[in-house]
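Please annotate the following for my students:
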Amino acid sequence: MRYIKMGILILSVLLLVVVTAQAAGKREAKYEFNVPDTSTVEINSNRHTRAEITEDKIQSIVTLDKFEKKLENDTLEIWFNEKAASIRIVDKRSGYIWGFVGVEKPDDLNKSWFEMANSLCTIEYYDKKEAEKKVSLSSSEIKKEYQWNADSLECKLNAEKLGIELAFTMTLNEDHLTFSVLNDSLKESGDSKIKALYFVPFLGTTREAEMNGYMFVPDGSGALIRYGAAMAYSSGFSKKVYGADIGIDLLESASGMMASRSDDYLVDEPQILMPIYGMVHGPEQNGILAVLEEGEEYATITANTSGITTNYNWVGARFDYRQSYMHPTTKAGNGIYKPQELANQMNPKISFYFLTGTDADYSGMAVYYRGLLEEKGILKAERVDNTIPLRLDIIGADIKKGFLYNPLKVFTTTQEAQRILSELEKEGIGNITMAYMGWQDGGMNGAKYSELSFESNVGNKNDFIALKEKLEEKNGRFYLYLNPITANKDQINKARQSLVTLSKSYAKIKRADNQLMFPESFFIKPSVAIDFIKNSREKLDAFPFAYDNIGYRLYADYTRNHWVTREETEELFKESMSMQQDSLALYNPNQYLWNNTSEYFDIPMVNSQYLYETDTVPFLQIVLKGNIDYYAPYANQGFYSTNSILKMIEYGAYPSFVVTESLNYELTDTPQVDRFTVNFDDWKSSIINIYQKINEALLPVEGAKIIDHKVMVPGIVRVSYDNGINLYVNYTAEDSVVENETIPAHGFSVVER
């Protein structure tokens, strides 16, 4: 039986402008206004996905001329040219040929780039003067030995002049090709030091706009970089998998970008949460999904459009054995940049999955990748509810700037939190996920780092248990918020607890606004963080936790005589999270923690919006939907426009709010001053309205998985689920008819296929 549900959002969501009161105890004035219609501008920006161009079958742009067939199975053929150290891959399902630039050097590439653009691998290195250079397998500077087996190639390479040698295998498996460095094969005996290694970075390369297609990078929710004419961008895409390593990378808060306002009002870029990238030649025709399987902790995803150094579009993974860092030469911290002395210990491994037909686009890649993660047990089916969950983060207490000392400021007691729940229950909202912040003795920024006792002015242990039970009666979930990764200067003993960088300084992020109570955040040693997590689990076993920062911070510690590598930190974090209760919430977690994540907070809903990123796509959401409950950023901290609500529906994300019982002006002179509007009563009507609309749209697909995401025409999106539901979203200002369905302006339709 067929049914249709429709929802219209324009004018339905009332937003609040709060005027700060000047006197204590005075209630703020509250103004309501309608959202201006800017959807036409936004839907054509790179914050959304473009409609695909329908075209005839893409023809292969490379041939097998001068190549010899070496490996074959039921799906793929591997052809090889020894002089160019290059391969061609034939997908037998479609006949399409994947390759590189070509065996004859084009006029627009110099010798070094031409060798890289064809070779199976490229090595970057530091010469004896510590200058960065590169050499590729096809270069005459490299001595190589090939051994072909039934389903693989083993290659030993020796750059004798550099004193660098290693060995790798290329293995054919069903629908994919895997490259892997052999254990202990890397040797350095000269003045040069290995910097990085690429495997087939120019696989699938295209020249300018010679075909319809794109590169995919896992930037935020996902980004496409469509092929186009050469453009003079200053740099290409380059981001470290799992985010910057604060033990060696220089960290900065959001860049000022020549803005006239304070840097503090800008947001940091999203990071790479998944070790993957992809390339498409003709949407729904030919695609490659690359999956980094080992060494990803030290890898960087790079993507370059035509016009950046070369006229070619290429995307790859760079495995970084070393990188430059600030080596201090004076006590004042001045120094010079030099490469790491010791190479990162890893054996890079990467697999290339060849996709065809409907699998060969960003949706197909995401569904395929989800299947790989499910096979490994990393993703499991999510909990299915009778109504969608609403996330409420509650701020209990914090400190307030004082003259002689910083007194405690209570924002929300447990009794007041009970009242907030009752107000929402009256409106039929019972499935609430709550993370309680500032519950510790001293509040969020006043509690010592290892503090695990309750702030009595907020509530005692029994009060929190009662609050937890009240939530669970309505099928909700309760978490105590903890941030084991960062702390302010008053919360820690820096000498014992703060992370030490390779530059021998304490790792920290400093914000530009020195008027803040705590402009600096210090990072905690992995061992100290693990002890804190273990103690929290042992002492407060009645409560599940929502851990902030640990999900998306991955770093090395260079404390003298106690080094901890980035990979070792990952293992420590994974082990600590696996020991939690069945219910565990994480803020924006990297992929290696997904198998322990019950709820995913603050999922990215856009990419970094670099000029060359042409589309934002819900790749991350397609992977996770039906496996992990995930929530959008706080609606009352900026993500509240009509388009934002429609995007939550399109991406299958649940709504989030951070609230207090206090009035907004009471946040002044506290570390919570950034949260400009959090009073529950001010936001109550909007919380109800937003939740009801999103619940109407997403409840029919609760527990289901996304199997396809497609822009039908600009501004109209169809999201297909595996339970037979099509969810249409209309960002335009007019009712639209698509596939014989009428989708209301600024609204949605839920249709059974």
Notes: Confidence is low (pLDDT under 50) at residues 10-36, 252-262. The two ends are 9 Å apart (CA to CA).
